[in-house]
């Protein structure tokens, strides 16, 4: 017990200095003196045999060792919280915060309504939805779930497919009348291509997957912005088929090079590998998987 207390000594002070950004604010948060914070950190660094924080008169900054240590400590603290949540959650109605990140039309129009249904069933659960196109580090930033699109490669995460999402090339009849119709993927280098996630578009050519590097004068990480630019006759877009199907049906857009399309993309539900997942998060994972498997 004494050894455990000694190991834990100074960690809360270290947490608060990092989170608050200064010794003074950390002392105020913990209701102790600044000298107490400084003394605890000095003793912690002495026990570890390494400096964790660079101290200057104006600001503090983490050393490389300090950065790695705070990540590990956050994981430990999260694991303790998860263990408590899991035990309590299996014995009572789920409650607490679930943090989710994702972006795009699929998340806002198809995932968000399902989250609302989940909260109606479990009213003591809170959801924080961050619509960010940034590839958030789930573990470092304490995010429970992410909705991502494409092909998953990160072995530190669990990825469960929600639904397949086929890609398509589209352009307006006016743009094609003015510039001609591409007959092979290689022809795309001659056209103004509207770039969303990447300018390397994948095609099935002679049974092999090949990337074509395209270029154009319009780029956005928002698929709807790409679609709107395409509909104003600006160029050729590479978008999810469900996003442009209404405009194709109405004749505003035309599919191109369908025979070359690669259909191995999907929308994924992604979350960190953990021995214990909070009960409320596990319930939401199952809720989403069942919903999309049935629809």
From TrEMBL:
Keywords: DNA-binding, Transcription, Transcription regulation. CDD domains: PBP2_CrgA_like. It comes from the Bacteria. PROSITE patterns: HTH_LYSR. Residues 17-63 form the HTH lysR-type domain. Gene3D superfamilies: 3.40.190.290, Winged helix-like DNA-binding domain superfamily/Winged helix DNA-binding domain. Transmembrane segments: none annotated. Belongs to the LysR transcriptional regulatory family. This is Transcriptional regulator. It comes from Psychromonas marina.
């Amino acid at each position: 017990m004494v050894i455990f207390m000694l190991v834990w000594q100074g960690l809360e002070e270290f947490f608060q200095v990092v989170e608050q950004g200064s010794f003074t604010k950390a002392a105020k948060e913990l209701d102790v003196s600044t000298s107490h914070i400084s003394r605890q950190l000095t003793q912690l660094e002495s026990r570890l045999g390494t400096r964790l924080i660079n101290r200057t008169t104006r600001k503090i900054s983490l050393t490389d060792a300090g950065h790695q240590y705070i990540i590990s400590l956050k994981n430990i603290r999260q694991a303790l919280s998860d263990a408590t949540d899991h035990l309590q959650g299996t014995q009572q109605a789920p409650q607490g915060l679930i943090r989710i990140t994702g972006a795009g039309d699929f998340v806002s129009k198809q995932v968000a309504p399902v989250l609302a249904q989940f909260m109606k069933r479990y009213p003591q659960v809170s959801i924080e939805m961050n619509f960010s196109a940034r590839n958030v580090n789930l573990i470092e930033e304490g995010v429970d779930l992410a909705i991502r699109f494409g092909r998953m490669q990160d072995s530190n995460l669990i990825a469960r497919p929600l639904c397949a999402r086929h890609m398509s090339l589209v352009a307006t009849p006016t743009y094609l009348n003015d510039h001609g119709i591409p007959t092979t993927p290689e022809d795309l280098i001659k056209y103004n291509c509207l770039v969303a996630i990447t300018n390397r578009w994948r095609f099935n050519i002679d049974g092999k997957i090949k990337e074509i590097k395209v270029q154009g004068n319009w780029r956005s990480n928002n698929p709807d912005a790409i679609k709107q630019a395409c509909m104003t006759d600006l160029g050729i877009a590479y978008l999810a088929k469900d996003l442009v199907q209404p405009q194709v049906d109405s004749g505003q857009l035309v599919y191109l090079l369908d025979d070359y399309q690669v259909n191995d993309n999907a929308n994924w539900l992604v979350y960190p590998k953990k021995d214990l997942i909070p009960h409320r998060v596990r319930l939401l994972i199952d809720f989403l998987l069942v919903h999309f498997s049935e629809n």
